[in-house]
Amino acid sequence: RSGTDEAPELVATNGLISRTWRLKPNAATVALDNLMTGESLLRGVKPEATISLDGDTRPVGGLIGQVEYGYLRREWLEEMAADPAAFRLRGFDTGPTQAPFSWEGRRGSAAELPWPAPGIRLDLHFSPPPAETNADLGVSVHYELYDGMPLLCTWLTIRNDSGATVRLDTFVNEILAIVDY
Fold first, then answer.
1. CB burial class (10 A; 0-12, 13-18, 19+) of residue 124?
2. Sheet (strand 28-34) strand order
3. Which of 7, 41, 61, 117 allows an S-S link to 32, with CB 3.0 to 4.6 Å?
4. H or E segment at 157?
5. What is the spatial distance between Cα 89 and Cα 2, in angstroms, rounded to a whole number?
């Protein structure tokens, strides 16, 4: 399924873990729960990623305005805002997991395992903020949640349709303010 930010939140769960993204005013992880123990792991809202292009570091998604990072209250989310410098959510896609490369099992039990591992996929697509001049750049953050295991895989892709060279200096993926055990 494809969508825009019309829905207030998206939830991905496999019965073992659950992750919730708020979609307005920008996409941000607002809950990460261990369903096996009932524990809430998230204590703060951060960007989904950061990227540095040609020396300019920018958040991708996220919300600002959380007053306390020791814990997160749902009612605070209504008061939080999009960072004016952050890449903004422009849409999303969902579906089953996708194989990143072809693979065939050889001997033993690996030959009978499904490929790709079954589960669900979420792709969040971001564009530069409205005041940005380079609208031909796009960032997508991809998530896959696998069936039968408390495992979530994330990665990002950057699209440059401008025709100009843009250098990716650094990136940080999967920024989570979680409880420190």
1. buried
2. 9-13, 17-22, 28-34, 39-40
3. 41
4. strand 152-160
5. 13
Contact of 87 with 126, CB cutoff 8 Å: yes
29-54 burial by CB neighbour count: b if 16+ within 10 A, else e? bbbbbeeeeeeebbbbbbbbbbbebe
Going by C-alpha positions, the residue among 36, 155, 21 that lies closest to residue 91 is 21
Tell me the pLDDT tens digit for each residue of 28-49.
999 999 999 999 999 999 999 9
Q: Which has the minimum average pLDDT: 33-42, 99-108, 144-153, 168-177? A: 99-108
Cα–Cα distance for residue pair 29/154, rounded to 1 Å? 13
Query: How many C-beta neighbours within 10 Å does residue 139 have?
Result: 23
Token representation of residue 123: 């792709």
CA distance 175 to 86: 14
> What is the C-alpha separation between 61 and 2, in angstroms, rounded?
18
Q: Is 4 exposed, middle or buried (0-12, 13-18, 19+ CB in 10 A)?
A: exposed
Listing DSSP states for 57-97 in one string gives: EEEES--B--S-SS---GGGGGG-B--TTSBEEEEEEEEE-
